[in-house]
Amino acid sequence: MTVDPRSLLQNQSFWQQECGAYSPNPPLTEDIKADVVIIGAGFTGLNTAWQFKQDNPNARVVVLEAAIVGFGASGRNAGFSTKMFGLEPEIVLLRWGKQKMIEAHQYLKKAVAHTQQLIEEHGFDSDYRHSGLVRISYSDKQQERMKKTYQLFQELGIDEDMTWRDKQHVQQEFHSEQFAGGIYESGTGQLDPCKQVRALKKLAESAGVTVYETTPVTNITRTASAIIVDIPGHKITADKIVVATNAYSRQIPDTRRLQTRQHPIWTYQIVTERLSDAQWESIGWKNRQAFGDNRQMLHYFRPTVDGRIVMGGGDAIVYRTDATHEVPSPMTWQHCEAHLKWIYPQLKDTRIDYRWGGPVSLNADMVPEISFIDDERIIYSGGCFGHGVALTHLNGRTIADLLNGNKTELTDFWIVNRKSLSLSSDTLTFLAGRTARCALKAWDWWEERALKSSPGERIG
Ligand SMILES: Cc1cc2nc3c(=O)[nH]c(=O)nc-3n(C[C@H](O)[C@H](O)[C@H](O)COP(=O)(O)OP(=O)(O)OC[C@H]3O[C@@H](n4cnc5c(N)ncnc54)[C@H](O)[C@@H]3O)c2cc1C
């Protein structure tokens, strides 16, 4: 990946722009040796680096980032720290069974708590609010499905922080006539992803981790005694490496096993101008929770600390290009804006100030994985899908346990070293992605066909 560092400091997410000027660390310009090299400075890479360094204060731990800290999904996401896992809960249940679904829920519950604790213990200034999440439906059909989801959580005994809310209740709270009901989930939070990832960098550095930015890994070679990591003009000789590149992992030159593990899928977001007090009054939403709908092509919404609304989703696009360069999607941004104004006609004249997109990592099973690649000296993390904020924070602890060679409750989680299906053909993956997208959109259309001016009908 050839990167002009200047281009990385602009045209990024609202969060990155709001966070202000950023001076990246200089690139690595010599050959070095390290105990552990971590490729990628997002939530996964930085959490892993910090955790491992805490366990091994004398170890030389190096993070190599092709662009800048938080360049990937970690600096562009919506900041929902939630217990969501995989696609729909029903699909996870069908594919993986009850026990694994319960275990995934417990892991994610721990992940949300772990993330909050990290923020509070280290005084991160990342605007964390443990304000809960509301899952909303628009149509009777979606509401029936939501009821089944709620009953499923109850049957599995994982509904501890969930409350069912009827139409009247959600409409009263959110002042939108489009809402048909919802589930309130109190044990989740929201944060500013860019502030969070930059705070993680500082924390890791304060423990003695070295972070090199604008330092792309161009090759990985195994020898009997070491792993050799190439960067332009130099090499690092390491005992172990962690490939924490999530949606970018196809570009890491390594074995085919790594390159066929997942595919990037693009998702897009918009941010409104600051709303006036009167506008906030008109839309209710007093508790400022995050919320999302239960469409297959879900939309999600949250307030910012400066009084804007961030919203995203509504589409997920597979491209043939790599994940590095943002592909603009005016159609998706337009869809998001129209959808926001469909929910809230009160905001029909509200301006959209920011638009951007980012890649999430999707694999054939649609659940995340942490795996050894060929041998225990290379650990890969990917497939975090759109729900990686809390997950990747705890995964950092899990990967540190693996690097230490320890078997722990976390390394026993079934996403660790599971047998994932490979996405062997690019063309087939592209076609399957496009077909799945059409099928999911058709599902939404079917469930929303009775709505007046349904959101699915308005934009392709
Ligand atoms: C638009 C959007 C909204 C999202 N919203 C949410 C949300 O609200 N809640 C939630 O839970 N999840 C959300 N997600 C998902 C979540 O952001 C990700 O799962 C998570 O941030 C992944 O973190 P990571 O560290 O594994 O990967 P990344 O943050 O993508 O980091 C990978 C890093 O690797 C670097 N890299 C790539 N190639 C190389 C190379 N050759 N050499 C060196 N470095 C390299 C990249 O530059 C990048 O910085 C969203 C994602 C997107 C895109």
TrEMBL record:
Pfam families: DAO. Residues 35-402 form the FAD dependent oxidoreductase domain. InterPro entries: FAD-dep_OxRdtase (IPR006076), FAD/NAD-bd_sf (IPR036188). This is FAD-binding oxidoreductase. The keyword NAD does not apply. The lineage of its organism: Bacteria, Pseudomonadati, Pseudomonadota, Gammaproteobacteria, Pseudomonadales. It comes from Pseudomonas cremoris. SUPFAM superfamilies: FAD/NAD(P)-binding domain. Keywords: Oxidoreductase.
